[in-house]
Specification:
The complex is a heterodimer of chains A (197) and B (94).
Chain A lengths: L10 H12 L3 H12 L2 H17 L10 H20 L8 H17 L5 H21 L3 H12 L4 H8 L3 H25 L5
Helix pairs in contact in A: 2-3, 2-4, 3-4, 4-8, 6-9, 7-9, 8-9
Chain B lengths: L19 H14 L5 H13 L1 H20 L8 H12 L2
The chains are: A mainly alpha (197), B mainly alpha (94).
Chain lengths: 197, 94
């Protein structure tokens, strides 16, 4: 139903639409690339490659349809087809290392009598974020992907099925297993910190 | 230190505490927290957790887990040079 079907866009039209419709997705797209590759340079390369492909195939993009899902799909395919081979393996997270870091923070906090509650609250927020990131990064990339698409980017199951090229039933079961795995990692960490619930 | 894939990670609740409904509820947990459940599924779910404390707690835990990712995972900042690089790359490969 797109107006431009069968008709070539002029370069100016194409550039203007590319900028208006696709570039606003840069932030989520870069975040997705970073969570997949776990490396800033790799994320940069992957995003550039994605936009280059999107520009080349822009005539196939139907105006008014979901630009974000379309770009995520291109990025995910680029990651699988070309990038995964050359990118570094995701770093395995050593919980004892993280724990040591927290403990040393605690010691400092207690010796510094004047540490404000604001600072404490803020750093606790940071610690939770860091811990969630570590647990997430330690998941297999397929699990990490569905959690990011669903919980961070808010895609629907149907959109995820299109981005990942899998049936909705598979989206559901993969998400379920991914969450169980994430839960297990976070619970293990919580126990190591002395929280039992 | 990979987690072993055992059949049961968590101890099972006593059999009499787990009804067929609870089984269905656990299959609906993700749909509920992701806003993907149909109106009938929502009704069934909400009615059940009003009466079943164990399913109510599972629902709270699952919401908490999603909230940890949604609310606490930090977004990375896009390098300022990236937009420029993208545009430059497009122009040079035309």
């Amino acid at each position: 139903m797109s107006e431009q079907t069968g008709k070539q866009l002029s370069k100016e039209e194409k550039d203007a639409r590319f900028e208006a419709e696709l570039l606003p997705v840069l932030d989520p797209l870069y975040n997705f690339a970073y969570r997949l590759t776990l490396d800033e340079d790799d994320a940069n390369d992957l995003v550039q490659e994605t936009y280059l492909k999107a520009y080349r195939f822009f005539d196939y993009f139907e105006q008014g349809t979901n630009a974000k899902a379309w770009l995520f799909r291109i990025l995910k395919n680029s990651f699988i087809n070309e990038f995964r081979k050359k990118s570094k393996q995701p770093a395995k997270v050593d919980y004892s290392e993280v724990e040591g870091y927290y403990n040393s923070e605690d010691v400092e906090g207690e010796s510094g009598v004047a540490s404000t509650t604001d600072m404490r609250t803020e750093s606790v927020q940071d610690l939770i974020g860091d811990e969630v990131a570590s647990a997430l990064n330690a998941l297999p990339v397929d699990f990490r992907t569905v959690i990011i698409l669903c919980d961070l980017e808010g895609f629907t199951y149907e959109e995820m099925a299109k981005i990942l090229d899998i049936p909705i039933g598979t989206v559901r079961s993969r998400l379920h297993r991914a969450r169980n795995s994430l839960k297990e990692k976070l619970e293990k960490y919580a126990k190591s910190m002395g929280y039992n619930n | 230190m990979e987690a072993k894939y055992t059949e049961e990670v968590y101890p099972k609740a006593p059999d009499d505490a787990r009804t067929a409904d609870c089984e269905q509820i656990s299959n609906l947990l993700d749909l509920m927290i992701d806003g993907e459940a149909s109106p009938e599924e929502q009704r069934f779910f909400n009615h059940h957790i009003e009466e079943c404390i164990s399913c109510f707690e599972n629902h709270q835990k699952q919401k908490l887990l999603k909230g940890l990712v949604t609310g606490h995972l930090k977004r990375v900042i896009v390098p300022q040079s990236l937009v420029h690089s993208i545009k430059a790359k497009i122009q040079e490969t035309l």
